[in-house]
Write a structure and sequence with these properties.
Blueprint: H1 2-7, H2 10-25, H3 31-66, H4 69-80
Length: about 100
C-alpha cells in the first residue's frame, strides 16, 4: 500500500507533504500562530466578562443617580470634583498621593 503511494502517485504524495509542511511551518496561519491566537482569545474573553460586569455597575449607578437631584449633585462633586461658584475644594491625599476617601 505504502509502496503504491510512492510509486504510482509520487507527485501527489510529495506535493501533499510539501504543502502540509509549508502550512505547518511557514504560512501566515501556521500552527504556532494559531496557539498564540487561541491564548489571546481566552484573555479577551476574560476581559469581556470583566467589562460586562463594570457596565452593569455603571448602569446601576446611573439608575440610582438619575432619579434624585441631590444624588446627582453628590455624584458630580465626588466623582468629577465639580463645585459651586465661589466655592473651594480641598482634596486630602495620603503618602502615595492617592485621594483619601471617607
Amino acid at each position: 500500500m505504502i509502496r503504491l503511494l510512492f510509486t504510482k502517485y509520487r507527485f501527489y504524495t510529495l506535493s501533499f507533504l510539501a504543502l502540509t509542511g509549508w502550512m505547518l511551518a511557514f504560512d501566515d496561519n501556521d500552527i504556532w500562530t494559531q496557539f498564540k491566537r487561541r491564548g489571546e482569545l481566552g484573555r479577551l474573553e476574560d476581559e469581556k466578562v470583566y467589562y460586562q460586569e463594570k457596565l452593569k455597575d455603571v448602569q446601576r449607578e446611573r439608575e440610582e443617580v438619575l432619579g434624585n437631584p441631590k444624588l446627582i449633585e453628590k455624584y458630580a462633586r465626588e466623582k468629577y470634583l465639580m463645585k459651586k461658584p465661589k466655592e473651594e475644594i480641598y482634596i486630602l491625599v495620603d503618602d502615595e498621593n492617592q485621594p483619601v476617601e471617607k
